[in-house]
Specification:
Chain lengths: 429, 378
């Protein structure tokens, strides 16, 4: 009919395109509905909201002409969350009680719970990924993930330890090792994906980030430590006696020691490097995503990404501008409200009106930022990653067979939600 | 019925290989291609999510599916397939919303009524040793919140304070011997903490005109200790904040609601506790030979007049209005006894010297409701 090119040619294309419609019609409706229903259901609806978002993004991602399908349900996520709560609540209560009862253990409780929750968080991330993979279907073939969440958590913890010990130099190697573990345990039907990601391939972007953003802070902190004989006086920063607030100032007792120069250097390095670091994060993320995508393959089929760093900057830039405009609008509304309060402060009706409109404005502001974020950042990042990707040697992918493996249970992702580590939409999942 | 045809792609669900087919829609859906021939009932078709013009249709009983990109065909198919967009099990958003609201309300009601009731039952069961530990950590928190005010330990004043404490607590059935500490601070207030700890802030000694007034304040705090109010308050605050954060989840801005909700809840609970402690204080001061009504006098003195107007935030107040309290205290105290009061003139003088350095005693800042920590204030 209206399909001149829709007739599949007998010899299929060698390369598969991945398409995603950036205009995303209907997405704002999902976000508004999800936000408002989450609000009145004490945020229980969020599981169904996340599911709707994923269904939307998955189904609009068309891989080699066929849309992906998301098969998860809100109910699965909700049940998983309940089970995770049942596990986590006693742990939290235990930590709380320990902290309350024993001052000696209390000082240890914070680092112990941080480490414990970090390891648990890595475990939850891997398990959440398993759930998402097993709920993804393309051309009737389910994806899957095997491997052990505990092994992944152990691997991640050891690598993080190494990264900290090496002052951050091992970071790209950690990223590559974890990426290899994740991809090597990802299955499309019966076929296993493989990743040849190496730390060396992302060493350059990392070193650039490292030298500009981290090295000045590290160097100045080390210099400060060395100058003080690795024993920084605990009273280097004291509370400002002049003001009532607990504002920290430099202790004047140390004014004549060399410590003051090193401490000043730390301050300057931090004030320059932290904004630079924020600016460089999208660059590093884009380079890493591209490198890792290029390293992934399934048999003879390979991914080929031509992602540009500016495609990661642009969404954030647009988002910032949109936010500024949005805040201006809110400010104008607020400016109109303020005279009302000032002139008619005593009137009960006006009082109630002001309170109600402030609450509405507050909720509207959160809803607005949510819509802008999903509409601009999520959509554009997803679009950038998807559309710059190509599948080389598509026939190899078309040869994969479905697996008879049972899909993973919804309990897998509950822990991630309860620990707040699982993002609703993870680019490149 | 007229037949509509289009071209599409068939997937057998076993391999990812696309097979070009021709789709023909009549009362059934015919799928014909090279080595493919299917004849599907329209009742068995289920559409997957996809952006128009692309459409993906799964077979309800099996792994097979077809995809095509033809909007006219998609419309015809939608019109003829009753169950095309049926989801297994049904979504039932309305039911979900109603149940969620019911569940949330149930937890909220538990937080508002259940937790205070439960903490009243639990507080007496907490072993003394554990309560002492909790008291120690709460004490540390309070002191930090008050910007580390120094302890006042002038020997003569301390001795008088200890004698006063002993006399007041004599007839009281206190679970532990109270430990009173005095800290120099320009807020006129006193706090009772778990484990029988009582903190007096020095300005309240400066504001008191005689020993009976201070005894009234002290006895009021002992009243809280006797009723185990501080422990109850700690359990209530912990329980409600836990439940509220559970219910409100991680939705943005919920921390504000949690704090406000918690303050409102603990205010409702402590008004009764305050009245009970007032009655306790009057009885104890009378028993020790002092004027029970002196508590009313100092309460009125340290209360800022502006604080008393019932306004929008009055439900957040953790103390009954002073006028109402003072009237109750006076009616309980009855006639002023003839004696000179609990403390002699000399004892009262040395007690006033407990915090020697005059830390701006004239500056009146009876600032109530400042610290959000679970404590019993005056």
């Amino acid at each position: 009919m209206n399909q001149a090119e829709g007739v599949p040619s007998p010899a299929p294309a060698r390369a598969g395109e991945i398409a995603f419609d950036r205009r995303a019609p209907g997405l704002v409706g999902i976000v508004v509905k999800g936000f408002l229903l989450s609000l009145i259901t004490f945020s229980i609806y969020r599981f169904w909201y996340i599911t709707n978002l994923r269904r939307y993004f998955w189904s609009r991602t068309v891989v080699a002409g066929s849309p992906a399908e998301y098969l998860g349900t809100g109910k699965e996520l909700f049940l998983g969350f309940l089970v995770a709560l049942a596990i986590l609540v006693p742990i939290y209560i235990l930590l709380f009680v320990i902290g309350l009862l024993s001052p000696i253990l209390a000082t240890l409780a914070a680092p112990i719970s941080f480490i414990g929750l970090f390891v648990l968080g890595q475990y939850a991330l891997f398990r959440g990924r398993r759930y998402r993979a097993s709920r993804t279907r393309w051309r009737g073939i389910r994806l899957g993930q095997d491997g052990s969440g505990f092994a992944y958590a152990g691997l991640a913890s050891l690598w993080w330890l190494g990264t900290i010990v090496s002052l951050g130099l091992a970071f790209p190697f950690m990223r590559a090792a974890l990426e290899r573990y994740r991809i090597d345990h990802t299955l499309v039907g019966q076929s296993r994906m493989r990743s040849t990601a190496t730390g060396r391939s992302i060493l350059m972007p990392w070193m650039m980030f490292y030298i500009v953003a981290l090295l000045p802070i590290l160097a100045s902190v080390l210099a400060l430590l060395a100058a003080s004989g690795f024993d920084v006086p605990t009273d280097l920063l004291i509370q400002d006696p002049a003001s009532e607030k607990s504002k920290l100032i430099f202790n004047p007792d140390y004014a004549d020691t060399p410590l003051v120069y090193y401490a000043g250097a730390v301050g300057i390095a931090a004030s320059v490097s932290i904004p630079l670091a924020l600016l460089l994060i999208p660059y590093y993320r884009a380079r890493e995503t591209r490198t890792f995508l290029n390293a992934a393959h399934l048999g003879a089929a390979r991914l080929n990404s031509s992602l540009k760093a500016r495609q990661f900057y642009f969404p954030y830039l647009v988002y910032m501008l949109a936010l500024i405009g949005f805040i201006l609008v809110l400010g104008i509304i607020l400016a109109l409200l303020v005279p009302l309060i000032a002139t008619n402060g005593e009137n009960a009706g006006i009082h109630a009106f002001v309170i109600v409109s402030t609450v509405l404005l507050y909720l509207g502001a959160i809803l607005g930022t949510n819509v802008l974020y999903v509409r601009i950042v999520s959509v554009r990042l997803w679009h950038a990653v998807a559309t710059t990707m190509q599948i080389e040697n598509l026939p190899a992918l078309e040869a994969v067979l479905a697996s008879t493996r049972a899909p993973a249970s919804g309990l897998n992702e509950g822990l991630a939600d309860a620990l707040d580590v699982g993002g609703a939409l993870e680019i490149g999942f | 019925m007229e037949a509509i045809t289009t071209t599409g792609t068939f997937f057998d669900g076993i391999s990812a290989r696309p097979r070009p087919v021709t789709l023909r829609l009549t009362f059934r859906l015919d799928i014909v291609g090279e080595d493919v021939a299917r004849d599907w009932s329209l009742l068995d078709l289920r559409a997957a999510d996809a952006a128009a013009p692309l459409m993906r249709v799964n077979h309800a009983h099996g792994p097979e599916s077809v995809e095509f990109a033809d909007e006219a065909f998609a419309q015809a198919l939608t019109a003829r397939c009753p169950d095309l967009n049926r989801t297994e099990g049904g979504s039932g958003v309305t039911r979900l919303v109603l149940w969620s609201i019911a569940a949330g309300l149930s937890v909220l009601l538990t937080a508002i009524y259940g937790v205070p009731a439960a903490s009243g039952l639990l507080a007496p069961l907490v072993p003394q040793a554990i309560e002492a530990q909790i008291g120690r950590s709460v004490d540390g928190q309070i002191v930090t919140l008050l910007d580390d005010p120094p302890l006042c330990n002038e020997a003569a004043g301390r001795a008088v304070l200890d004698r006063l404490t002993a006399r007041l607590s004599e007839g009281m059935a206190l679970p532990v011997a109270p430990q009173v500490s005095v800290r120099r601070h320009k807020i006129a207030n006193a706090l009772a903490l778990p484990g029988g700890r009582v903190i007096l802030l020095s300005d309240i000694i400066a504001k008191a005109r005689n020993g009976d007034e201070l005894a009234g304040i002290l006895a009021h705090e002992f009243g809280h200790v006797a009723a185990r109010d501080p422990m109850r308050s700690v359990i209530t605050a912990g329980g409600t904040s836990f439940l509220l954060s559970l219910v409100l989840g991680d939705l943005t801005g919920s921390t504000v609601l949690v704090t406000v909700g918690q303050a409102a809840i603990s205010a409702g609970y402590s008004r009764d506790a305050e009245r009970a402690a007032d009655a306790y204080a009057v009885a104890a001061v009378k028993r020790a030979g002092g004027d029970g009504a002196a508590l009313a006098a100092i309460l009125e003195r340290i209360t800022d007049a502006d604080d008393e107007k019932p306004d929008g935030i009055s439900f957040l107040r953790s103390h009954p209005f002073t006028a109402e309290r003072a009237a109750r205290i006076r009616s309980l105290a009855g006639e002023k006894p003839t004696g000179s009061g609990i403390l002699s003139e000399a004892e009262w003088k040395s007690l006033q010297g407990l915090c020697p350095e005059p830390a701006k005693p004239e500056k009146t800042r009876p600032n109530d409701g400042k610290s959000p920590t679970p404590t019993e204030k005056l």
